[in-house]
Write a structure and sequence with these properties.
Shape: rod-shaped
Order of helices and strands: HEEEHEHE
Helix content: 25-40%
Strand order of the largest sheet: 3-2-1-4-5
Largest sheet: 5 strands, mixed
Number of strands: 5
Oligomer: single chain
């Protein structure tokens, strides 16, 4: 009978209990690069000129020759107190603003406190698309 030589493999040291952080560092660096690339693309600005504070403010009604767009609490648009449909809003504003000299195309907005936010933003965007140079917001006196 032949005897086999059996060899036992004995562990040389203890098991490694440290956490491998290399994959974590890779994921964090990839996320950092993604945020660095995407952040400049999300920059959307809206230029706002706030009036200077005066000691005694005088509140006047808008000039009748000025264009005033109102958004009611139901979302209905009116142009100088005349109801206007959403489909006719931009073409009609384009015609009116085209008749005015460039740089003087002022459009004032009023909106009810309960007006749908989406309708107000759509009205502002439509006015800018129609060619308004200056958009003003009319607020009630404090």
């Amino acid at each position: 009978m032949r005897t086999r030589n059996r060899k036992l493999v004995l562990p040389q040291g203890q098991a490694n209990a440290d956490i491998n952080v290399t994959p974590l560092v890779d994921v964090v660096l990839v996320l950092l690069i993604i945020f660095m690339v995407v952040t400049p693309l999300m920059n959307q600005e809206l230029e706002v000129r706030l009036p200077l504070r005066e000691d005694e403010a005088v509140f006047e009604d808008p000039d009748p020759r000025e264009l005033v767009v109102n958004v009611s609490h139901e979302g209905q648009l009116t142009l100088n107190h005349e109801p206007i449909s959403e489909a006719d809003y931009i073409p009609r504003l384009t015609r009116i603003l085209a008749a005015r000299p460039e740089g003087v195309r002022l459009l004032l907005f009023t909106a009810d406190d309960r007006a749908p936010y989406g309708k107000v933003v759509a009205a502002l965007d439509g006015a800018k698309a129609a060619g308004a140079d200056i958009l003003g917001l009319v607020t009630a006196p404090p």
